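Quick log. Single chain, no ligands specified.
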Amino acid sequence: MATPSSSPIRPPVGPPIGLVIFDCDGVLVDSEPISMAVLVAELAASGVTMSLPDVTERFLGRSMKSMCEVLSAEYGFAAGDEFLERVRTSLYARFRAELQPVEGIAEAVRRLPVPHCVASSSQPERIRLSLTVTGLIDLFEPNIFSATMVSRGKPAPDLFLHASRSMGVSPSACVVIEDSPAGIAAAKAAGMRVFAYAGASHSRDAAHRRMLQGLGPDLLFDDMRELGQFVAGEAVR
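-> predicted structure:
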């Protein structure tokens, strides 16, 4: 039964859930406002003017490789090693000082009735830093998968398919927890169910919620403490 903060989009389909695949940024850790602000600042310092809404729309949920391709093709900016290192240095410093877990996520993960893992567009060192400073690393290690492990990042399905193969669960028995258009598209392309999370600080507005709902996830929710009941309901069908 849907609560005021959850919106089923269509009836459940497929076999019972056997694996929950979490995105990291904006799903496990409330990192997106920090990440986008750092990117805007470093682009500006390099002579590329992009607003925060523009950066969020173009790069939310995408890999560094995908971001660099867009910057080159559409802005004529070659994001070389020096630029990427500046971004990493600034971002990691702010993560260590400011990053917080998504509210209720630790309890939600501990209560899941099926196995779980992380599949993120970020590099492995960033994923592990994010999970370590927020106290979540022991809930996921060693089942951490990065876009660096596949040839194509989100919105291609490669990363989620790699995670499901590694965990020994068929795609049709997986559900992905995502907050970005690229991630939702990747989950759908992988033949997986997808629950869209709209409770992180960057997505708590009606426009973002409508955008996510328009992408056709199987569920839209904004309280991570509800996740267990949604998964359990499908895991025992």
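Residues 157 and 190 are 5 Å apart (CA to CA).
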